[in-house]
Specification:
alpha/beta; 15 strands; three-stranded antiparallel sheet
């Protein structure tokens, strides 16, 4: 296996399992232990993993892995959430989709809706270039891309150009992906620029829905997006524990589980 392919495969394993070790990588890829350590060191220098004594981990880093490497994590839960979210969309609606792996799954679920072609279709407004590309070939889905400066790790467009476009549109429903969701702190993201775009997209919607898998419930990330006054609805998976569910409902959220 060539080095570039091996590095990508290591990141795929890291995204799926959260950690890798040198011995397992040597057995899987057939490279020497010394070569494998150099591979891990190279990825660590790019801030794509954190080195440990015998391998590497992902969960201790303070930044986001690129969206491609997060897409394998909790994929079943995200697909379940996406199906429920897509069912909230009726033909003719204008739908906002922020960036993220859960909203990317929602885009796929919308693209699979056969009934949209028979009706008036829908309009999707997004600041995520991967979602725009995913939906661009569907003639029944009008795709509006916000413009802006691309964030290399999340494929999201951020900055004043995004906000300028969003001020001129109205959305029927917006699905907003987050890095953390807490009853007290509300919805949060790792990046303040993404938080600003997510907040404005939610403000432009008649109904704003936070979408996140249950592993992020109780987590507080760097930048605040908003609380129940902005996001009356939270859509998550059925892995949410009873105490967290009660806390969120007491804080004023309507919680839907997939």
């Amino acid at each position: 296996m060539k080095r570039a392919a091996r590095l990508n495969a290591i990141l795929d394993l890291l995204a799926a399992d959260g950690e890798v070790n040198v011995d397992e990588l040597v057995e899987r890829f057939g490279a020497s232990a010394a070569t494998t350590r150099r591979d891990l060191d190279s990825l660590a220098e790019q801030r794509l993993l954190t080195r440990t004594h015998g391998g590497a981990v992902a969960h201790s880093v303070a930044y986001e892995l690129p969206i491609r490497y997060k897409s394998h994590q909790r994929s079943h839960e995200k697909e379940s959430i996406a199906l429920v979210a897509a069912a909230l969309v009726a033909p003719g609606m204008v739908v906002g989709l922020s960036g993220g792996t859960t909203t990317t799954a929602i885009a796929a679920a919308l693209a699979a809706r056969d009934d949209l072609a028979a009706g008036t279709g829908i309009t999707v407004v997004t600041n995520a270039v991967n979602i725009a590309a995913q939906l661009a070939t569907r003639p029944d889905i009008k795709v509006v891309v916000t413009g802006g400066v691309i964030h290399s790790r999340s494929y999201e467009l951020v900055g004043p150009f995004v906000e300028q476009l969003l001020r001129g549109v109205r959305l029927d429903i917006a699905f907003i992906g987050v890095n953390g969701m807490d009853a007290a702190a509300g919805a949060t993201t790792q990046d303040e620029r993404e938080a600003a775009v997510n907040r404005m997209m939610a403000e432009r919607a008649r109904r704003a829905v936070v979408v996140t898998d249950s592993s992020k419930i109780g987590t507080v990330a760097f930048a605040a997006v908003g609380g129940p006054e902005l996001f009356p609805v939270l859509l998550t998976d059925d892995g949410l524990d009873a105490a967290s569910l009660t806390a969120l409902r007491d804080a004023g959220y309507e919680v839907l589980t997939a």
